[in-house]
Amino acid sequence: MFIEPRVGNGNHANRRGWVEVICGSMFSGKTEELIRRLNRATIAKQKVEIFKPAIDKRYHDIDVVSHNANAIRSTPIDFAQDMLLLGGSCDVVGIDEAQFFDNGLAEVCVKLANSGVRVIAAGLDMDYLGKPFGPMPDLMAVAEYVTKVHAICVQCGDIATYSFRNALSEQQVLLGETESYEARCRHCFLEGRKALR
Ligand SMILES: [Zn+2]
């Protein structure tokens, strides 16, 4: 479990920012971990704001919703840049589904952290092909803390790091279809990809 260097962030005049990334496959508990950290910040009376890409319309418009329905309110935005205006006065900025943001995300997170904001971003590190997903590699590079959470392979019970998709569509963004995804270990992911060909 991730232990924060500190939760409270001093007074506004001398607060210090940093960047945390929570990454992993689908069903790995990324959003649950994001919510856990944000709840702790809220208890510490931090001003918290949560953003998600407007593209993610799976559930409700203003809730960050994880698969176990443990929801907190969030603001859907179109561009990473929008966070500078909306999140600049916060102590903590949470970001869900970070992989769907544009490539400006890392730079925006750095700017927020430089101005004293604690940034916590959760997202898929790999797409269904096992390739690094969108702005995540850059974001992980500039983060102080990177936590990779693991799912369990539904085929063999091993630790899973891949999001295997049981469909032939080549579209990277396929939302609202969690039923066609499985968390898989490297071995079972490769076996599954072979079988799809
Ligand atoms: Zn497996």
Automatic annotation (TrEMBL):
GO terms for molecular function: ATP binding; thymidine kinase activity; zinc ion binding. The keyword Zinc-finger does not apply. The keyword Nucleotide-binding applies. GO terms for biological process: DNA biosynthetic process; thymidine metabolic process. Keywords: ATP-binding, Cytoplasm, DNA synthesis, Kinase, Metal-binding, Nucleotide-binding, Transferase, Zinc. It catalyses: thymidine + ATP = dTMP + ADP + H(+). It comes from the Bacteria. ATP binds at G24, S25, M26, F27, S28, G29, K30, T31, D96, E97, A98, Q99. Its EC number is 2.7.1.21. It is found in: Cytoplasm. Homotetramer. Belongs to the thymidine kinase family. This is Thymidine kinase. The lineage of its organism: Bacteria, Pseudomonadati, Bacteroidota, Cytophagia, Cytophagales.
